[in-house]
Every structure is written in C-alpha cells, then in structure tokens.
Amino acid sequence: MDPEGAGPVPDTLKIVVAGGFGAGKTTLVSAVSEVESLHTEEVMTSESVGVDDLEGVEGKATTTVALDFGRITLDQTTVVYLFGTPGQRRFSFMWEELAQGALGAVVLADTRRLADSFDAIDFFESRGVPFVVAVNCFDGQRTHRAEDVRVALDVEERVPLLLCDARDRESVKEVLVELVTLVLRLELSGA
Amino acid sequence: MDGVPPEGEGGREWSFESSLIRPYSLTGGRVRPSRTDFSMTSQVVAVPRTRPVRVDPELELILSLCVRPVSVAEVASRAGFPLGVARVLLADLLDQGYVVVHTSGWESHRPDAQTLRSVLEGIRRL
Questions:
Q1: Cys-Cys crosslink for A70: which of A29, A53, A138, A153, Cβ 3.0 to 4.6 Å?
Q2: Element spanning A177, H or E
Q3: Which of these ranges, A105-114, A158-167, B28-37, B57-66, has the smallest mean pLDDT?
Q4: What CA–CA distance (Å, rounded) separates B78 from B60?
Q5: pLDDT tens-digit profile of A60-97?
Q6: Which residues on neighbouring strands pair with residue A43, listed in sequence order?
Q7: Average pLDDT taken over every residue of chain A
Q8: Number of domains, chain A
Q9: Using an 8 Å Cβ cutoff, are B68 and B45 in contact?
Q10: Residue A183 within any structural domain of the chain
Q11: Of A32, A54, A139, which is closest to B31 when you measure between CB atoms?
Q12: Cβ of B20 under 8 Å from any chain A Cβ?
C-alpha cells in the first residue's frame, strides 16, 4: 500500500501494559509516548459474540473498557504502540485482542496490591506472550527488593522482574529495553 | 507521591450499564464491521482524489483524520468513537475504496533478530 502523496506506511509493533487500577499504566505510557496519551474505549455486551444487531439489546449489561495508549515512532518504518489495559480478569475479552500479534507485555505491579497482577501474569503465561513484570515504586524510593516481590508474585526466574518509576522516562525505557531484550533472546533461542 | 494520583485518567477505567444504543447509532446499529481487516494498530490512510462528494459527517471526520497513515486506535481516539464503532465505519470506507489499510506482518509473526536489535537501539535513543 503506497497511496500517492501520503508518505510511507510504517510497520507497527504493539506492547501491552497491564496492571490493576491505579498501578500507573497511564503514567507509564505517557512517560515515553511522543503524543499526549490517547484514549479510546471498547464497549462489550455480555453477549458480544454473535450479536449482529441491537434489537432487544436495551437493558443488557455492557462493559466499557478504557484504553489509554501512546505512540513511539522509532524511525520512518517502525512505530511502537503501547496499550494500557485494566488488569482484572473481567476485562480479559480486551486482553485477547490486545495479546493478538503483540510483541510482548509489561505487567505493571503495585506493591500495595500485588494480587491485582495475578490474573494478567496467568493470562500472558497461558497465551505464550513474552512479558516482564515492572514493579512501580510510586514514592521514588526502592523500598522493596525485587526478589521479595518475585517470591510474593510467584513469578518464575525466567520472567524478568524489575523495579521502576512509571513517571520517569528513563526508567520506563529500561522496562521496554528489558522486554525487547527478552523477545530477542527468545528469537535467538528459537523459542 | 506529593498528592499526585497514580493514574492519570481521573479514576474511570470502566463502567457497567452504559447504553450500547448511543455509540452504535452511528453505524445504523451494526456492531460488527463488514470485514475484519482492522487490528487496533493497522494503519489506515485515505486514498487521495477519491473523496466522496457527499458523505456522512462521521465518515468525513474519519477521512480527514487519515490523510496521513494513522492507526485504527488513533482514528477512534481522535474521532471520539468507541473502537468498535470506528472499525465499522472504517470497514464501510474500505468497502467503498476511500481508504486503504495496512496491517503489519509483525502481527502474525515475531520480528526477526535484526529488527529487534534496531528496535532496542531506537528505544535507547529516545
């Protein structure tokens, strides 16, 4: 596809950022995005699969998932999108779509609510999506030891786990570097 | 934390019981696009010189947003439509030849090592 005058069409990479409410997903995305964090939503009925028209849909419970996302243009040919998505299982219909074709995922953990990360970790593990766990240290102080968090989350050694400050661009870059390094390692090992 | 909320979205991540009728009134009630070419990161771009003479305002809005290549998610975000609505409308525009769509091959297979290395370099350079 090369519509006249529209410029080159870049290839895109997608990275999913999953975390519980208040874990700092939007903050993390904004820290590296070249545009102000964008926002959209997906509306899903409880019977979304197979619904072709809206007859009788009135009154059915629907769920709206907010998606915050950002964009990083690496060069003319490559654009990375970061999608933040809520980490609770009831939003897993969104994870399915986000995980499809994703380069990998960042599970953003909040030490005050570690249990909020379990569902996302299980999901990415079961789908074979490469992921890293980033522990957001809101206070800027690394009061937690990464190894303690690893034990608490029961995350295997082969899953990279690091502390981060979601507000800090350099810190978020480190998280993304860790993720892409993991993906590269998998690629080289033929996994 | 200096009183800064950890999340920038003002606290609303989800809601139940919202009405499907309103967002999908723009699509004549259709909740599924006529085709499935559009992933969230698919790039869409308006085809030059095919701009329809008369077009619905929401389609006009979408066409104006993809003068240059832009992702489906960005079209939805900038137009203020839910993702599903944007997909239905984009599919209509694609059917009529007003836009073209490109989905990265990286959606179906992992990028090769060379690409991943240049992605790493690119992130470090940010």
A1: A29
A2: helix A169-188
A3: B28-37
A4: 13
A5: 567 788 899 999 999 989 999 999 998 878 788 888 88
A6: A64
A7: 86
A8: 1
A9: yes
A10: yes
A11: A54
A12: yes
For residue A64, give how far its alpha carbon lies from the nearest alpha carbon of chain B (Å): 5
pLDDT of residue A69: 95
Chain A residues with beta carbon closer than 8 angstroms to that of B86:
40
Question: What residues does each domain of chain B span?
Answer: 21-125
Residue whose C-alpha is closest to residue A83's, from A58, A64, A103:
A103
Residue A54 forms part of a structural domain: no
How sure is the predictor about A1, in pLDDT bands with cuts at 50, 70 and 90? low
Q: ipTM of this complex > 0.95?
A: no
Question: Which fold does the domain B21-125 belong to in CATH?
Answer: Arc Repressor Mutant, subunit A (1.10.10)
Q: Which helix H or strand E contains A104, and what residues bound it?
A: strand A104-110
Nearest CA in chain B to A182: B116
Of B7, B48, B111, the CB nearest to A3: B48
Residue numbers of the domain that contains A106: 11-44+63-188
Q: Which residues pair with B14 in a beta bridge?
A: A65
CB distance A60–B20 less than 8 Å?
Answer: yes
